[in-house]
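INPUT
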Amino acid sequence: MHDFFSDTKTKPSMEMRKTVLTCSVGDEQKSEDPTTIELCEKTAELLGKEAAIFLPSGTMCNEIAIKVHTQPGEEIICEYNSHIINFETGGPSALSGVMIRALHGSSGTFDSSQVTDAIRPLSRYAPISSLLCVEQTANMSGGAVWPLEKLDAVAATAHQAGLKTHMDGARLMNAVIKTGISAKQYGAHYDSVWIDFTKGLGAPIGAALAGSQDFIDRAWRIKQQWGGAMRQSGIVAAMCIYALDNNIARLAEDHHLAEILSQRISAFKKVKKVLPVETNIIIFDVMETAPTAQELTKALAKKEILIGAFGERRIRIVTHLDVNAQSGEVLITELAKHLDR
Ligand SMILES: Cc1ncc(COP(=O)(O)O)c(C=O)c1O
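OUTPUT
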């Protein structure tokens, strides 16, 4: 199987799995799991924050952060294509009772003037704007990287108006490897930042949310309330530590493969547009004369190649540590049969 559907499809390598055999474990809920504590310290250090909390998923990182930063009836600001708006089943309204103000960005990013316009003036009638969220990299915009100055500027605008700031860093390390700018720098003006161990980093479970000690203490209460507190979570945290130690620098290989694949796909006769590829995600639209995205995914699945349909004629392909140049060749050969004749 050549699985280009998502970087969430990676399977833990044998070396990663071996770490489980020897890791020390304890009751995580009581802060007694040494391996989880080590992972949280490592992540907090990486992200330049006082503390971090280990959670089962990135979705839970986003939703707990929103819960901690807001009160019911308030409003948060997110980009229109963000994961928080599109893939978290209305979590912000269901779990935190907040409204969402969606900004139409460019490549998943927006600028300070858009934030200024979106922040509601204090009034008896309007919801209070209380949180600005950004996504680094922007998944549905083809893994686009927020430029540092732009990230800093929107955070400054939000803070000046009294809002908190949150970064969905599911693929923050892809941005770091792409630009050489550290995760600390990217997250410097964000009150909460998280990274996912299950995407390009290749771990099977887990994400860690970082912020001030006070923020993390409050996040712990929500984690407990929502049933996210664990027991011997070191079994999983050990694999996440392995991911941090071994799988960050190699993200450059995923970016290189994505670049090559996007060039080949751009040359196909029936491809209308390929979004600029900056990291490991290729999003492209096919022409009316081509099979639909659903037809294409089905046809390729028959050849054991998985890609994603994200709209009538929009396809997403993601590179990661379980695909390589050889799988790329198989993918291109098969795609060409449908898109290049
Ligand atoms: C940008 C972004 N944020 C959040 C998530 C949620 O992460 P998880 O699948 O770990 O819940 C994803 C997952 O694909 C994502 O792409």
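end of record. The domain at 250-339 is CATH 3.90.1150.10 (Aspartate Aminotransferase, domain 1).
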